[in-house]
Amino acid sequence: MNTLRSLLFNIFFIGGTALTIIIGVPMLAFPPPLLTRFIVFWATAMIAGLRVICGIRLEVTGMENLPPGGVIIAAKHQSAFDTMVWLKLVPTSVYVAKKELLEIPGWGWLARATVPRLNPWPWTTSSTDPGSSGNTYIFQLVDPSP
Description:
- The chain has a two-stranded parallel sheet with strand order 1-2.
- It has one domain (2-58, 73-142).
- The chain has helices spanning 2-24, 32-54, 81-89, 107-113, 135-142, and strands at 96-98, 121-123.
- By secondary structure, the protein is mainly alpha-helical.
- Helix 4 links the parallel strand 1 (96-98) and strand 2 (121-123).
- 48% of the residues lie in helices and 4% in strands.
């Protein structure tokens, strides 16, 4: 039964994401807040699909511990679920994304266009400095002051 549920959800996820890209790319001409609402709708549909198809219920604890204002949440990225759940949980999310992800035709265009809600800052794991781990660049993105 779990295999069937997983298969059905993967069909739903891939099909829903493809449909989102097909509808979303022409929406690039619309104002960013409208496109952002459309992407949040996709995330909401995917989370609902997990509940209906797989029987997975999302339970969030500790949101009251988030301080007001800006915070950095470093999620332990373990699945595609991480990419959609923050759209629903944190109303002013800003992502740090690998540059290569933003170069994916369709998906990357939508990710770049949903500014400021999904303002993905591209970073790369490679560096011209052999001693650099890339961490300096990430901190420069978070704190852009000279």
